[in-house]
Amino acid sequence: MPCQELQHAEAIRRSVYTLDKKLPVDQEKITAMIGHTVLHAPSVFNCQSTRVIVLFGEEHEKLWELAKEALTSIVACDQFGQKRQQVDKFKKAAATVLFFEDKSAIRGLQTNFPAYADLFPTWSAQTNAMVQYAIWVKLASAGIGANLQHYNPMIDEYVAAEWSIPDSWQLYAQMVFGGIAGPADDKELDPLEHRFKVFGSNLKVSETV
Predict the structure, then answer these.
(1) Handedness of CA 124, 126, 131, 136 (dihedral sign)
(2) Out of 97, 113, 167, 195, which could bridge 175 as a Cys pair, Cβ 3.0 to 4.6 Å?
(3) Which pLDDT score, from 0 to 100, does residue 48 have?
(4) H helical segments located in 41-176
């Protein structure tokens, strides 16, 4: 992908919440895109600790029904209606990506490199985040809308039981995606000069993008 196309995909990647089941590309292509990212994404010490599951169709809908079931045990009755509407909105999408980290891989690093033991959990989270972002950008480049949710750990036990998740896999996030049925909300960008610095160059920051 030329740099300009990658930058365009990064720019159009947004949190899109009004989604439907009309995907602009087929499931085979989407699966290949996601699998390619999982295979090639960087990871701490090349431990390749990120695990990904994609749920399409009825399996996707089942996830969000399980989320509603989990909500009933922790959300006050007067707030449940609003939460239910939110979850039903996710259910209207086409699919969900589940992101996990395999803690056995991280424990192995902690054993083999004890000097960094306290840092590996943070680096593991960063590894997972890179996979999330890369997949999100790829989906955006294909005209697919997505948003990222964190219903873990509330749904962890439900997910583990339903899809036979190994005990060592820890759920980190859920990416809901589908056809774009409504635009993303407006997004204000803070000036780049406040967030980005360059040293050793005669260019101004505004000239670098």
Answers:
(1) positive
(2) 97
(3) 97
(4) 57-71, 77-91, 103-112, 120-141, 156-163
